[in-house]
Design a protein that fits this description.
Elements (H helix, E strand, L loop, with lengths): L7 H19 L8 H11 L11 H13 L4 H5 L1 H21 L1 H12 L2 H6 L5 H22 L2 H17 L4 H13 L7 H23 L4 H9 L14 H14 L2 H17 L1 H23 L10 H16 L1 H24 L4 E2 L2 E2 L7 H15 L3 E4 L2 H10 L6 E3 L10 H5 L9 E5 L4 E2 L2 E2 L4 E2 L13 E5 L6
Parallel strand pairs: 3-4, 3-5
Antiparallel strand pairs: 1-2, 5-9, 6-7, 8-9
Length: about 475
């Protein structure tokens, strides 16, 4: 592999080219917004310093983009994803140049741009994607801080990871990794003054969200504890889930790419033995994987919960492969690149292809169609209020029903709200007659209500369910 000179130009050409291709294919994407995406869009319509399950940055971003575009279409809701990952790839390239030179910088940017989770994050807007460039900037500033001990880099690192935290609370892993590096490596000891500056900048940036949580019954903290279910679980401590741990571990080969994840495990051992900055990067990368592995063993964990590991992971594994296994690096980019091409192409072909008679992307189809049917049923019945008790249905009803002049309500919470819709849009008192979308017929005044309309749910996200619309008088449902 020849030395890449002036790495930034070629890297910029590749990353911008990939990003433009992603945006072009996104314009032809035939999938509906997923439930989380619709919820993030709704958050953007109600700007605040925090929300039920996540910090606020993703809602702010979607609102800014859609306002500037003058459109709330799925393309504009999702468009920031590809751009943010492009910025992340280049920031990691700059960091890799400081560590290992121009050749490693070029291949780091290329490798990141073709990662499977980046391909997915360029199709579906998520908090991981919004966190990514700020996390990468924090790592770059931290590495510069370790080299120079300049207080300015401490402020940049703290502010950047604060912004990452406002996107997703998983950004806290950065502070854990930096603390471990300070404890276990000489290079990681940035000094008490710089540590204090970093933490002050971090605290200042996140303070609006901290205040919001304190004044809203620690809503997001409570939701996070619900996700880490074993913290509140009454199940015996010996009730472990080794199958869940194995599932999470092997899912990381799909998240980071099979070749690159296998190489990363080797690079951890190599980096630890090498010491210095490489050991610091091991300590910056490992905490998310270890913590989420414990969560998977104790209960369950989703594949994307450890994504914070892979920003430092890229800075560790790509230079390692450039130095020692360039053929494996080319193989990794070939495999990941094929996935990066295939995924957006599938979204332009939906509902084809099919598997076992169902669309391969079934969970991303049929949501808007159902919302349109529900809205039509409400108009035909002459009611102005739609009620649903399912979060997925509520999410798309708010998005697809925006500007339709209809009110949408969730159940009144019994105790702590189960979701953002119960928290913010509970069924009002004195609502009058309404259209309720339910899986089972409600009982009112001792009688079972007959459905007003059954829905055709074949071929979409609700294909295995039964749903119908009912005209419900006031007082029947809470």
């Amino acid at each position: 592999m020849k030395q890449v000179r002036g790495w930034l130009g070629p890297a910029l050409f590749f990353v911008v080219g990939v990003t433009c291709a992603r945006l072009m294919l996104l314009a032809f994407n035939r999938t509906d917004l997923f439930v989380d995406e619709s919820q993030y869009w709704l958050w953007g319509q109600n700007l605040d310093f925090g929300y039920y399950s996540k910090p606020p940055l993703i809602g702010w971003l979607i609102r800014a983009v859609t306002d500037l575009a003058g459109s709330d279409s799925a393309f504009w809701v999702r468009m920031p994803g590809a751009v943010l990952h492009a910025a992340t790839a280049l920031l990691l390239g700059v960091a890799a140049e400081r560590l290992a030179g121009g050749r490693a910088a070029f291949w780091t940017a290329v490798s990141y741009a073709t990662l499977p989770f980046v391909a997915v994050g360029s199709l579906l807007i998520s908090t991981d994607t919004v966190m990514a460039p700020f996390y990468a900037l924090a790592l770059l500033a931290w590495l510069r801080l370790m080299d120079s001990r300049a207080p300015g880099w401490a402020l940049v690192a703290g502010a950047a990871i604060g912004m990452a935290f406002l996107a997703k609370y998983a950004a806290i892993y950065f502070l854990l990794g930096a603390a471990l590096a300070a404890a276990l490596t000489r290079e990681g000891r940035i000094g008490w003054k710089n540590s204090l500056l970093l933490l002050c900048a971090f605290g200042l940036v996140i303070s609006p969200n901290v205040i919001w949580n304190l004044t809203h019954d620690l809503t997001t903290v409570s939701h996070t504890m619900d996700n880490v279910g074993w913290v509140r679980s009454e199940a015996p401590a010996s009730s472990l889930n080794p199958a869940g741990l194995a599932e999470f571990f092997f899912s990381q080969f799909a998240v980071f790419g099979p070749v690159l994840f296998a190489a990363l495990l080797v690079a951890y051992a190599s980096g630890w033995r090498a010491g210095g900055t490489e050991r610091a990067l091991v300590l910056a990368s490992l905490p998310p994987l270890l913590v989420v592995s414990v969560q998977a063993l104790m209960e369950k964990a989703y594949a994307n919960w450890a994504l914070a590991a892979y920003f430092a992971g890229c800075l560790l594994v790509v230079p390692y492969l450039v130095r020692r296994r360039p053929r494996l690096l080319r193989a990794s980019i070939a495999v990941n690149g094929a996935i990066a091409i295939l995924l957006p192409l599938l979204t332009t072909l939906a509902p084809w292809p099919e598997r076992d008679g169902a669309p391969l992307l079934q969970r991303y189809l049929g949501r808007a169609d159902l919302s349109r049917e529900i809205i039509a049923a409400a108009r035909a019945a002459g009611v102005g209020l739609i009620y649903a008790d399912d979060r997925d249905i509520l999410a798309d009803l708010f998005y697809s029903g925006a500007g339709q002049g209809l009110a949408i309500a969730a159940p009144r919470p019994a105790g702590r709200p189960r979701n953002y819709y119960e928290q913010t849009y509970p069924l009002p008192q004195g609502h009058g007659r309404m259209l309720a979308v339910l899986a089972a017929a409600p009982v009112c005044d001792g009688g079972v209500l007959a459905p007003l309309r059954d829905f055709d749910l074949s071929g979409g996200a609700y294909a295995k369910r039964t749903l119908a619309a009912y005209l419900v008088p006031e007082g029947c449902l809470r």
